[in-house]
Fold this sequence. Notes:
Blueprint lengths: L4 H20 L1 H9 L2 H7 L17 E5 L6 H17 L5 E6 L2 H12 L4 H9 L4 E5 L8 H6 L1 E7 L45 H8 L2 E5 L7 H10 L3 E6 L8 E4 L2 H6 L7 E6 L2 H19 L9 E5 L9 H11 L7 E3 L21 E4 L12 E6 L8 H8 L17 E6 L5 H11 L5 H6 L1 E4 L12 E3 L12 E3 L4 E3 L6 H8 L4 H18 L17 E4 L2 E4 L2 H6 L5 H4 L9 E6 L2 E6 L2 E6 L18 H11 L7 H18 L4 H6 L1 H23 L1
Parallel strand pairs: 1-6, 1-7, 2-4, 2-5, 3-4, 5-6, 8-13, 8-14, 9-11, 9-12, 10-11, 12-13
Antiparallel strand pairs: 15-17, 16-17, 18-19, 20-21, 21-22
Helix pairs in contact: 1-2, 1-4, 4-6, 16-17, 20-21
Amino acid sequence: MQLKNYQQNTLDVLSQFFMDCRIMGAEAAYRKITAEPDIANRLGRLRDNYVVWDTIPHTPRICLKVPTGGGKTIIAAHALKIVSETWLSREFPVVLWFTPSDTIRKQTSEALKNPRHPYREVIDEQFGGKVRVFDLDEKFNIRPADIENSTCIIVSTIQAFRQSNTDKYNVYKHNENLEPHFAHISASEGMEKDENGMLKFSFANLLHFHRPIVIVDEAHNVISNLSQDVQGRINPSAIVELSATPQVKNNTLYSVRASELKEEEMIKLPIALTEHYGWETAVDEAITKRAELEIAASNEHDYIRPIVLFQAQDKNGEVNVEALKKYLIETANLSESEIAIATGEQKELDGIDVFARDCTIRYIITVEALKEGWDCSFAYILCSLANVRSNTAVEQLLGRVMRMPYAKSRKISALNKAYAYVLSRTFGEAASALVDKLKLKGFEEEEAKSVIEVQTALFENDVFEINKVKLDSPVITIPPTIVLDTKTSTIEFTKQTSDEDIQMVCDQVSDAEAYEIKSKFAGYKKREEESSPAKSGAFFSIPRMMAEIQGELEFADPEIIFESFDWDIAKFASAKLDAGEFNIESQGHGFVIDIDGNRLGYSAAGADQMEIPYIDIDNWQPVNLISWLDRTLKQTDIPQGQMVDWLRQAVEYLTEGRGLKLTELMIAKYVLAKKLEAKIADARLKAKATAY
């Protein structure tokens, strides 16, 4: 699965952070990266001092801000290999994957276990298929061999660990099923013991020993002191949090802009917002828009069946679920088979594949929110009959209508937008409320304002007289820029009419008339404004250079031209790494690696992290390291024979020429690979400069 540009950029920053962590520590690495102008600009108010948790002072903990619909799980899946190699120098880490609820936990576990699911495909590719996934309920099925020979991912909720009295909860209980794991584990600080002072064979103690990588979804919910205590018991090696709305204390490292999701065709924008004074017209217009979109969708190659999400009022409201369904069937003449109710009591979506071509559902009625994890990109229209300002469910429902079908822009522009029809007692109130809701979905305020496109209601106004309003209330003072027809009691806007003139009239009429005046005036102004070519959908085209390659014309992109250029890495990069570039010095029970003047510490325990099957530590040979480097640094534009020879020269120079120990090189192989990778990249740039 090819990453979107913003996803790759996020992972690049994450990788740089962990590389810097090895050199200068998490706090200094965080300051260094967040001080970069682009990143500082992205973070805004989230850029603050790095917060260290006392329970895990040496564990890097950062958060990636990704708006709803941006693919947080795919980013998390790719992050595992980055942390494992760059920070831990391990081939097979233990991973504890926290989700915000049991519903999401089960969905995430099922997705990660499914070998055909994109999430699992990513992780399999990173770890050579040596991956085991366990739901928390399956924790006692984990064998020592699983941890030794594969990347083990345990999916859980933090609630399962977030308990002050650890005796009552499963993960902290002594369990004989875990005894094989503890055959070679000794008690260390932070592990729990029983009343006799003996080490508990508990799942929490097992995690504490293996120091898992912790992934936290919806991380803004887990920054309490109790969460710090939980992490202290788990003893993580690194924590990567993901959230659309992180808090300052989350240590946000990078922020993806919502506009980047739009550019990558992940979400529908803008949101066309229409405010209504009466609920019937809001419903009618939502139905009409859905019908228009279905006609448009019939011209698309991909199957799309646009869906309306109706948010009814609660059971004591005028427009409750029953009243709304009755209106849809009896007044709007909709078929009952096209309507599904999804509330706490009525679960008519359960077991339904809304993407299926034989599914007839086009209207969904809910009250609070659809169940967690329900995502259908066919949802295009939100019609909220509740108070959009105070109702928290609107935020979740808004996210439901923003996802782009098949994550691909549609050829008909109407299908690239989301639509919202809402009740509002004061014109402009709903737009302001939706800005606040979008901010909760990860949008910055200016982004949120720019993507809301206020529309004029169709059925409450005569579309042919958008600049006229008939009044029942007597108006005493009329500004000169507004024309009053005394015979029909109708006012007419002109191009010179200002917002202040409109307000003067509105102060003299009823609330309903003031609403209509403001609504129509907003639509009139929008129609009168001159659109730029870009807003009208016009494109500016420029010619592109072509090059003839193997008898075919190709766009003259540097990468394409370079593909046909044969180059020899040995001509552009020496395989020798001198002491200034890469050095290893003994230090106590471990050693220090010096890379370009930056020093990384390693302990002797690093030898336990080696995962080279069938090779005894005492029998390591240079060929084993060369073979591993060849697999890790495989380059499509360098023939394998040429690559192996270059790597052989590099290893021979380090071991024979400089006398470095092979065991230390094997333990530090990831760092060595990163340095050689940088030399290859530099050589490629030099080769490209000679290719043109």
